[in-house]
Amino acid sequence: MATSFRLQSCWGPSLARAPLGRLLRPRACCSAPGRAQLRSYAGGPGGLSAALLRTESFVGGRWLPAAATFPVYDPASGATLGMVADCGVPEARAAVHAAHEAFCSWKVVSVKERSSLLRKWYDLMMQNKGDLAKLITAESGKPLKEAEAEVLYSALFLEWFSEEARRIYGDIIYPSAKGRRALVLKQPLGVAVVITPWNFPSAMITRKVGAALAAGCTVVVKPAEDTPFSALALAQLANEAGIPPGVYNVVPCSRSKAKEVGKALCTDPLVSKISFTGSTATGKVLLHYAADSVKRVSMELGGLAPFIVFDSANVDQAVEGALASKFRNAGQTCVCSNRFLVQRGIHDSFVKKFAEAMKVNLRVGNGFEEGTTQGPLINERAVEKVEKHVSDAISKGATVVMGGKRHQFGKNFFEPTLLSSVTRDMLCAHEETFGPLAPVIKFDTEEEAIAIANATEVGLAGRCLPGLPRHSWAPANATQSQTPPVGGLPEGHFSRVCVFSKWRGWLCAGLVSLSPVAHIWEP
């Protein structure tokens, strides 16, 4: 049962309002060659909606500046999209207090009204889907079509939870004692801290926040420093939808302040829940914070997804699946295939056809350009990691089938890369690359493939492409029965195991998914 109590106002003196960010000013040190420039659209800088391009924090229903600002860059061109409020510990604590005070009234709002407000928020997202997609492409670099798909995906979470808000049911249980009944009531926990990644800057927020608000909780969102504009745009639309002040709060901050702000949010005694999607290393730190104050957590951490192809698989279908599972958002998703395990009998054919498919279907470019399928990596550190994995593999005997270096389009672009003759001792075989690198490992037996797939401390997804029914479940069952990993979910080694066969098409075996509303409630 969640307990609430009212605090005295902790707001400090109002900070001086800072001027709006300087928009689209290229940095002299990182101008990109060729076409890697943010396109201009009518209506605002780079075509971004002036109404949705907010640069201040959103706390207690107000847009508030911070004492400092930090720049947000377009990863394709290096242009400065804007200067955003760089919140610190005081702002983070103020946001938690605002959320807690709002919780005292939001938790008693009728489920019908909460449902209606979430539905209005969804409707506004759909009305502004074009502008929201441009924001995502501008700050994350992903192709506009992928950004448009994310906006729809993101909005649908709000629609879903607007309907689920009406279905908060309790239960009556027959206990062992004769003549008694146990009554179960579901109550909102309180303030939930939501920490989200940059690769899905909109969807990862609505997926968590929609559940929390539907259950009667309030939230403080700390978006990734590379992509704060989507979170702030959602705040603007939430405000327009009539979400009460303090129910949805956003505190952006720079990378240099992320650690201290994260600690302040996760250790605050008024916070009851932490929801995080990101790296395993960061997840461990947040789990430590949660343990010290006994907070509930929901986490989706790093992965090292294997993509297993048996001799019995249809090679053309395998290549099609490999292309889709590897190069979405230039390989920058947590469930992207990171290792391709191909049985010896079809290995050479698979590698040849995979390379041909990459040449035909992948086009590197600015996300705003028509036909682009591969945008930039989020920043130079991401490019350096891919370079490190490629050079390490080459030094240990891997063969570059195609790609293998930075793309001439700009400093944050990397060529879609295919490596063969990859061995288990290479970095790309046991570290998540998070980039457009496809390493292929040859294997002989099913047992060997399963051993390679499970040779990891983290697990989030896995894919297997057989052509016979017997292969449809054996690898999935084997990977799920292992010791729970450091990353991923505790229910099994992989949270998503997608199995493919010619006779059934894609089949989800043992799908384990988070149930955010269930985690928000406490009986």
TrEMBL record:
Its recorded name reads Succinate-semialdehyde dehydrogenase, mitochondrial
Broad class of enzyme this protein falls into: oxidoreductase
Q: Which PROSITE patterns match?
A: ALDEHYDE_DEHYDR_CYS, ALDEHYDE_DEHYDR_GLU
Biological process terms in GO annotation: dicarboxylic acid metabolic process; gamma-aminobutyric acid catabolic process
Pathway note: Amino-acid degradation; 4-aminobutanoate degradation
Gene Ontology molecular functions? succinate-semialdehyde dehydrogenase (NAD+) activity
- Source organism of the structure: Marmota monax
Active site per UniProt: 300
GO cellular component terms, alphabetically, are:
mitochondrion
- The residues the entry assigns to the signal sequence are none
Q: Keywords of this protein's UniProt record, alphabetized? A: NAD, Oxidoreductase
EC code: 1.2.1.24
Show where the Aldehyde dehydrogenase domain sits.
Answer: 65-462
User: Which family is this sequence assigned to?
Assistant: Belongs to the aldehyde dehydrogenase family.
